[in-house]
């Protein structure tokens, strides 16, 4: 009932033409349906997935169509389908965009199951998808030129609308061949007219929400840098389609994607490799390079890209008005583009299909004649069944891939976060495990990523484990009360984990490890904090004696990030504590407070626009708590400029500090912030007679 409810005008099922490779046992195959007044017979099921079905359908004149049926569970999904239909209807008529024919809708109350249903009728691109042909053999340079120009032409048609329409999911899987060999762009389910311009006033929450929204409508390998790094404050809009066109051109030439692993850092830095030797496609390299620009404002407009591609085609002697040659496409019956009942006639460009224009369907027949014509064309369709072998699967299978792309977009994002080798789990020793979780994972994917990490650990080791989370984001999975939330300050905050915090975690780990010989501990969170905590544990437990040895041991198991100097300082202090006997340690350490009177920085750093000085912001932390700061409005900050001020002298006014002490100095300019972090740990190691704290600024 669920599958039948969208079809309001079924007639009794009749024998259907069998098409090899397509399903004919579906309940709807053989039935008739009217979409916007156009009477069709369902011939076969081409593809299914999620809440969508794709059928091949035939009218009384023997013309083939693709019928896409979609269910909308909520208002948001319904609006998305309606937008797709509206965009396709607005864009139809362009020779490089799949032709829209008609659509129908059934509301949630009428459907009988509480979901809105939509039927969309389009031309049937029986030639299959571009990627299927490319998987069989290489394209010639002429074929690449025609396919790429068709894609550029379709994007130009979208970008020149008012307002411009951004496809957002341009990829080689969305390029289809029609029965004549012309390329068509399909799948407008992600299209939008929205643009975004992040700036310094945007909050982290706004950026995260937009990043998650963009991830739902894009494919990881084709995402432009501005979609992955919103802190770059690049405009987000039509230029992302130009980036995707560059990825397509690279793929057409070399049968691989420039960013095959979807690695975020490679994409935001545009790190791809073009062959240096002659390959037969070197003439396309300038087009690839101009489209794969990190800054979207430096990418060409779609109209400019079409002009460049057209000029290159002329130089190559490629006729862009002719179909792609050498495809060995099956010969199908001519396709109609007339919807007489609705009064809409979709014209077929004469430059594309001469045969189709000669065989345009005649006006709709009366009812009795229609039944006779239906019988005649039933026999015709049976004769054409052999020619349909593997042909009309192409568009349906492409739609199925797009449906799967939608339902697995989140999984692809998790995979792109981890890379191609699954969750990032490293056994430093048999009892110490590092399993970093990237902080940038969207909230909706955090549980999946964590569960994948947990399963990977269980597969690789025996025994019970306790997990220590150093991230600001709490754990979600069940660890049978063997999880510990010990969030450390983010690396970008400039605050270093205190020695007391590190020692406390080490004591807890050691206690758990002593309970049973098979127990092991897992450290998760941001990678830098995981490496620091693992190195601290190696020193604390006596596995190694020197901080450098601890880092090298971790380095043998994984490529570690560059740790800030303050982390190395903590490791040095911990090494002194664990390697010094109690009596000598008492002689070195006391628990009295120390007064900080002033900070002297010489020479004066030059970080303002005119490079004559700076307006420093100083923050003093004791035991992880902020005790003193000069932070205020920019105009109220004290300015130190050469030659009047040869040094920076800040009066602190006797700030009492104890435990771990950290002094953060920011030499502030209006545009650029350069952060110098000067960490002074355990001030009880200093001479009590010292009243001035002197810091020397060095150039990074």
Automatic annotation (TrEMBL):
Residue ranges of domain Protein kinase in the record: 40-312
GO cellular component entries: cytoplasm
Superkingdom per UniProt: Eukaryota
Domain C2 tensin-type, first and last residues per copy: 591-700
Record's keyword terms, sorted: Nucleotide-binding
GO molecular function, one term: AP-2 adaptor complex binding
GO biological process, one term: regulation of clathrin-dependent endocytosis
Name by which UniProt lists this protein: Protein kinase domain-containing protein
């Amino acid at each position: 009932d669920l599958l039948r409810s969208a079809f309001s005008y079924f007639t009794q099922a009749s024998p259907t033409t069998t098409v090899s490779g397509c399903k004919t046992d579906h309940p709807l195959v053989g039935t008739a349906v009217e979409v916007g007044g156009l009477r069709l017979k369902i011939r076969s099921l081409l593809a299914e997935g999620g809440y969508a079905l794709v059928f091949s359908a035939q009218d009384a004149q023997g013309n083939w169509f693709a019928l896409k049926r979609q269910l909308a569970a909520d208002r948001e999904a319904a609006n998305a389908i309606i937008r797709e239909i509206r965009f396709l209807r607005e864009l139809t008529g362009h020779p490089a965009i799949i032709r829209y024919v008609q659509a129908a809708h059934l509301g949630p109350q009428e459907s009988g199951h509480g979901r809105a249903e939509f039927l969309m009728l389009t031309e049937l691109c029986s030639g299959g998808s571009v990627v299927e042909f490319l998987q069989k053999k290489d394209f010639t340079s002429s074929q690449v030129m025609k396919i790429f120009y068709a894609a550029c032409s379709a994007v130009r048609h979208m970008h020149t609308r008012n307002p411009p329409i951004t496809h957002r999911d341009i990829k080689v899987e969305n390029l289809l061949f029609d029965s004549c060999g012309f390329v068509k762009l399909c799948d407008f389910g992600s299209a939008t007219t929205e643009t975004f311009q992040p700036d310094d006033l945007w909050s982290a929450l706004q950026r995260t929400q937009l990043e998650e929204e963009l991830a739902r409508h894009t494919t990881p390998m084709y995402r432009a840098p501005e979609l992955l790094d919103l802190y770059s404050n690049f405009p987000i809009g039509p230029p992302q389609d130009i980036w995707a066109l560059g990825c397509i051109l690279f793929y057409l030439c070399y049968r691989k994607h420039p960013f095959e692993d979807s690695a975020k850092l490679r994409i935001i830095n545009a790190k791809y490799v073009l062959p240096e030797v002659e390959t037969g496609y070197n003439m396309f390299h300038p087009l690839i390079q101009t489209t794969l620009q990190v800054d979207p404002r430096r990418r060409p407009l779609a109209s400019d890209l079409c002009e460049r591609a057209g000029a290159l085609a002329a130089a190559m002697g490629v006729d862009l008005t002719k179909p792609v040659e050498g495809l060995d496409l099956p010969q199908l019956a001519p396709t109609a583009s007339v919807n007489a009942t609705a009064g809409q006639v979709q014209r077929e460009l004469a430059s594309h299909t001469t045969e189709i224009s000669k065989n345009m369907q005649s006006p709709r027949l009366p009812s009795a004649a229609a039944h006779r014509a239906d019988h005649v064309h039933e026999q015709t369709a049976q004769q054409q069944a052999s020619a349909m072998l593997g042909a009309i699967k192409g568009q349906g299978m492409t739609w199925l891939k797009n449906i799967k792309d939608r339902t697995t977009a989140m999984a692809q994002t998790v995979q792109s976060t981890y890379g191609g080798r699954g969750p990032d789990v490293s056994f430093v020793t048999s009892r110490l495990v590092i399993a970093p979780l990237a902080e940038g994972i969207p909230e909706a994917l955090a549980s999946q990523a964590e569960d994948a990490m947990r399963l990977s650990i269980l597969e690789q080791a025996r025994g019970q484990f306790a997990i220590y989370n150093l991230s600001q984001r709490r754990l979600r999975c069940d660890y049978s009360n063997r999880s510990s939330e010990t969030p450390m300050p983010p690396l970008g905050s400039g605050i270093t984990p205190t020695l007391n915090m590190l020692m406390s975690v080490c004591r807890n780990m050691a206690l758990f490890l002593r309970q049973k010989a098979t127990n092991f501990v897992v450290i998760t969170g941001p990678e830098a904090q995981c490496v620091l905590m693992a190195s601290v544990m190696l020193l604390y437990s006596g596995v190694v004696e020197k901080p450098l040895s601890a880092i090298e041991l971790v380095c043998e198991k994984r490529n570690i990030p560059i740790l800030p100097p303050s982390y190395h300082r903590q490791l040095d202090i911990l090494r002194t504590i664990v390697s010094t006997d109690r009596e000598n340690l008492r002689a070195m350490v006391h628990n009295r407070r120390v007064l900080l009177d002033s900070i002297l920085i010489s020479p004066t750093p030059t970080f303002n626009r005119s490079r004559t000085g700076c307006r420093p912001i100083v923050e003093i932390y004791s035991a992880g708590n902020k005790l003193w700061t000069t932070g205020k409005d920019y105009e109220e900050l004290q300015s130190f400029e050469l030659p009047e001020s040869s040094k920076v002298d800040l009066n602190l006014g006797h700030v009492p500090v104890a435990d771990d002490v950290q002094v953060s100095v920011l030499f502030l300019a209006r545009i650029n912030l350069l952060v110098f972090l000067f960490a002074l740990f355990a001030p009880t190691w200093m001479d009590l007679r010292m009243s001035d704290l002197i810091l020397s600024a060095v150039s990074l």
